[in-house]
Amino acid sequence: MKKFPYIFLIFCFLSCEIFKSADEHYSEAEDLRNKSKPLEAVKLFEKIVSKFPNHPKASDAQYLIAEIFYRDLQDFSRSIAEYRKFSSNYANSGKVPFSLFMQGYIHANELMNHDSASVIYKKFIDLYPNHEMVESVKFELKYLGLGINEIPELKHLIE
What is the DSSP letter of 71? Predict the structure, then answer.
């Protein structure tokens, strides 16, 4: 009978984790990211996406996974894959155009894969010709592969 209290405590501890809401996981993940623990944050965001796929926070969680891989971990290939996953799984989200832009941006400016960036940027223009970012996309496309000192509109930044 001595084992019963320990088993009960373990069960209580585990069940608390099991019964956490998507909002609780999301808040905890944000806290972890703010504390410079991006991988732990990703795990919680992934839990939201898998456990609560239809919750309003699920699309935000998937987008933040992509952002963390890009901004915090600088794992550019994984970030692109996560942005693609976001666009595929949450096609009706207003963030899909931004996700597509980021895929092109990473190819162009981080991976120096200008051919892939060009394809993505052209797709963006075709899909979202009136989007607020279309001028930025056209700018990126126009100067694809050039350094900051080779772009007339940006020369003032280096002088």
Answer: I
Each residue of 94-120: pLDDT tens digit? 999 999 999 999 999 999 999 999 999
Q: What is the CA 127 to chain-centroid distance, rounded?
A: 20
d(Cα 11, Cα 98) in Å, to the nearest integer? 43
Decide if 69 contacts 85 (C-beta within 8 A): no
Q: What is the CA radius of gyration of the chain?
A: 21
What whole-number distance in Å separates Cα of residue 56 and Cα of residue 92?
12
| Among 73, 75, 102, CA closest to 86 | 102
Q: 32, 29, 69: which is closest to 49 by C-alpha? A: 29
How many whole angstroms separate alpha carbon 146 and alpha carbon 108? 10
The four Cα atoms 89, 90, 92, 95 give a dihedral, to 10 degrees, of -140
- Global pTM reads 0.85
With 0-12 / 13-18 / 19 or more C-beta atoms within 10 angstroms meaning exposed / middle / buried, residue 113 is middle
C-alpha atoms less than 13 angstroms from C-alpha of 34 in its C-beta half-sphere: 6
Between residues 147 and 126, which one has the greater pLDDT? Answer: 126
